[in-house]
Amino acid sequence: MKRHLVIPLSVLVAAFTACNTNNNSMKGKNTNSSGEINIYLEESFKPLFETSIYTFEGQFPLATINADYVNEVEAIDAFITGKTSTICITRDFTEEEKKSLLAKNNVEVRSTKLAIDALALIVHPENTDTLMTVERLKNIISGKDSLWQGSNRKINVVFDNPNSANFIYLKNLSEISTLPANVFAVNSNEEVINFVKENRNALGVIGVNWISDEDDPTTLDFRDGINIVALAKTEGEEYFKPYQAYIYEGYHQNKGYPLVREVWLLNKAGRTTLNAGFINFMTGEKGQLIIQKASLIPANMVARMVNITTK
User: Fold this and answer.
1) What is the largest CA-CA distance in the chain?
2) Could you give the residue ranges of the DSSP H alpha helices within 8-109?
3) I need a labelling partner for 16 at 20 to 30 A (CA). Which of 30, 150, 218, 287 fits?
4) How many Å apart are CA 263 and CA 272, to the nearest integer?
5) Where are the domains of the chain?
6) SS3 202
7) Are the folds of 31-116+261-298 and 118-259 the same?
8) CB-based contacts of 65: which residues, under 8 Å, 6+ apart?
């Protein structure tokens, strides 16, 4: 004789209500896996973080992360003035900056290296001047070299923003204080890409993350209609494009692609907050795999370079 378990409808309703009540109460509570936060991220890394936040929120449905994609100067200002407790930029704070925040606001800044990134130089498909040394790039940015090789066409250098990490990097590299007339900014990395697609004389400067993910249809669309410039440290050396293996060599072995940089997460929220939970995710296995898939170099995964010889 079969026996069936009969649960009164009132009990099921009560259990379901209790479950919903618990979820609703947790959704407003700030923990490593729940709550709502606003973070400021350098716009160079927008494709990476759009994927990362989508994945994190899928894993933790009670968490909401609102991302503001801004230039590096804005991100740092938002962090210092208290608009946000978490930012992603291309450098760590100095000890003096950390001590200043601790003294003024009694705030401890915890910094974590997330990845190794690179700048990419892009040109119009009809432009055949696609090999460049770092020295020539410095001369172009400083205005000393203003013409494309093999023609009398003027080089127009276009950046995303005068306060962006991309521009700050090459400004420091070229040691310039003022912009020459042929260097100007638009509003975003996406606008740089579109400008280069439409202008034969343009030399675009973007974060490689915008064109590096081979599996992202948006990335592939961005890459359609541009050429990527190959760079050498000096005349006579080998030229490299910003591919993952060459970014790795450029950072870890002082060879390969030269325009490499670090990606940092800075946080001043507590260790049990959603801010800390997201940083733990990004620096953990899943986050580092997302970074690797985006063809950047994860900071917390051991890479092994393999040379493949074909006959």
Assistant:
1) 95
2) 9-27, 46-59, 72-81, 95-105
3) 30
4) 23
5) 31-116+261-298, 118-259
6) strand
7) yes
8) 36, 37, 39, 53, 56, 57, 274, 278
User: Which structure tokens are listed for 54?
Assistant: 């989508």
Amino acid at residue number 17: T
**Amino acid found at 89:** I
Q: Which tens digit of pLDDT belongs to each residue from 32-60?
A: 999 999 999 999 999 999 999 999 999 99
> Measuring CA to CA, which residue among 77, 79, 259, 101 is closest to residue 166?
259
The whole-angstrom separation of Cα 270 and Cα 268 is 7
- pLDDT tens track for 81-98: 999 999 999 999 999 999
Please give the model's pTM, rounded to 2 decimal places. 0.87
CA 88, 94, 96, 99 dihedral sign is: positive
For 175-225, write each residue's pLDDT tens digit.
988 888 899 999 999 999 999 999 999 999 999 999 998 777 888 888 899
Q: Which residues, 6+ apart, have CB-to-CB distance to 198 below 8 Å?
A: none
CATH number for the domain formed by residue range(s) 31-116+261-298: 3.40.190.10
Q: What is the CATH number of domain 118-259?
A: 3.40.190.10
Show the beta-strand stretches assigned E in 217-279: 227-228, 230-232, 260-267
Q: Are 170 and 143 in contact (CB under 8 A)?
A: no
Alpha-carbon gap, residue 170 to 90, rounded angstroms = 13
Q: What is the pLDDT of residues 141-185, one digit of tens each?
A: 999 999 999 888 999 999 999 999 999 999 999 998 888 889 999
Query: Interhelix angle for 134-142 vs 165-174, to 10°?
Result: 100
User: Whole-angstrom Cα distance, residue 228 to residue 130?
Assistant: 7
